[in-house]
Amino acid sequence: MSTPTKNNQESRLDLSKWAGLPNKLIAIGLVTVVLGLVVPAWHKTFAYSYLTAFMFFLSLMLGSLFLVLVHHLFDSYWIVPIRRFLEHLSCAIPVMAVLFIPIALFAGSIYPWMSVDGHDHALDVKRAMYNPWSFYIMSAALFGVWYWLSNGLRSASLEQDRSGAASCTVTMRRYAAVGIFIFAITLTLAAFYWMKALEYQWFSTMYGVYYFAGSVWVTLATTYVIALVLKNTGHLAPIIQKGTFKDIGTLFFAFTVFYAYIHFSQYFLIWNAAIPEETFWYVKRENGVWWSVGMLIIFGHFFVPFLSLLRIDAKHCLPVMVPMVVWAWLMHYADMSFNIKPVHNPDGSGISFGSLVLSLGTMAGMAGLLGKWFLKEFLAHPPFPQRDPRVAETVGVYVEPVSASSSRGSGQ
């Protein structure tokens, strides 16, 4: 592994050129926060723009954690080249916890149920879940569980780099076996507490899966472009293969269909039942600009990527995939906006200048902070698992089992 290490050290100089970009994005984010707090007319708009950006980037953290869990559950060797940076992304939970502080501080103005006085039947039946104590305690618990799970997996992975012990693989598989159930429960609770709770009257049993499908979808798009960049800088050049990109693209295609299936199923069941406690959520999103956003999600979130990726060779065709990655980011942000912002703008009166500035600013600030964290963590550790037992298989090298060579030797 001496030659790859040398290449990694040389390529780090190239990657370090990106170090200044996160600082600029953080500066834009800080200016946005000041504007959102200083301009009285922008207070509410800032709060919902901030929550939208937060749920967008939380998708990337949780989607990365899911891919790491799947890798260990199914022994999927093709994820080995990209596992290390997925581990770093999933371990950005402390940064997300810090970014959650403004949401916790302004929760009273963000979530309508926190300011309901008197009797409200729709809230009374959910009072055990939607009350301030439950909200804050559960929020802290979610970040704690994610921190334990993501850091446990990465710590065992880094320990294997140092020791090469097979016990590290066993440890990671045990984390994954338990963690996949914990992941499903905690992601659902996060979606219910931080997004669905915006309209507490609404009922949907599919909302957690809906957020999960969109999260993994946008994470796979992000994974594709990060892997491409790290291959070009040389960090992953020794291990990543052309087939890796095809596999990422194939899974991205699969989650395109899965997301569409979940979103359509939720809409169809609510439309078919025609219960006012459920239909009002979609009726509100047929007003004004939200109708256009809904149509954009239908065609842009499904038909565009579905038709673009039908051909098998499209998955490793950069003129197709790179624009598709950018498109996926735009569609996922539109999806998060469709879920969150109609609470503040129910009549869909249009996108104001303030809303545009605050939306772009909050996204830039969080992207800068998380990008700075990612670069720091990535450059501080080996770029890919060094002693994972599946590394040879990943690069297409056959390593003869010791038992086989021993038996031949004894036969001679």
Key features?
412 residues, disordered N terminus, single chain, 75% helix
Describe the structure.
This protein has 412 residues and is mostly helical. The chain has one domain (15-116, 130-385). The chain has helices spanning 2-15, 20-38, 43-74, 80-90, 93-105, 107-110, 121-124, 132-163, 166-194, 207-233, 242-273, 276-284, 289-308, 318-340, 353-379, 391-394, 402-411. Helix 3 runs antiparallel to helix 4 (80-90) and helix 9 packs across helix 10. The chain is globular and about 70 Å long.
Write the layout of secondary structure elements.
Elements: H1 2-15, H2 20-38, H3 43-74, H4 80-90, H5 93-105, H6 107-110, H7 121-124, H8 132-163, H9 166-194, H10 207-233, H11 242-273, H12 276-284, H13 289-308, H14 318-340, H15 353-379, H16 391-394, H17 402-411
Please outline the major beta sheet. Answer: none
Count of domains: 1
What is the CA-CA span between the terminal residues? 33 Å
* Percentage beta strand: under 5%
Structure annotation, total helices = 17
Low-pLDDT stretches: 1-13
In N-to-C order, the SSE pattern is HHHHHHHHHHHHHHHHH
Radius of gyration: 23 Å
Gross geometry: globular
Compact description:
The chain has 412 residues and is mainly α. Helices cover 75% and strands 0% of the residues. It has helices at 2-15, 20-38, 43-74, 80-90, 93-105, 107-110, 121-124, 132-163, 166-194, 207-233, 242-273, 276-284, 289-308, 318-340, 353-379, 391-394, 402-411.
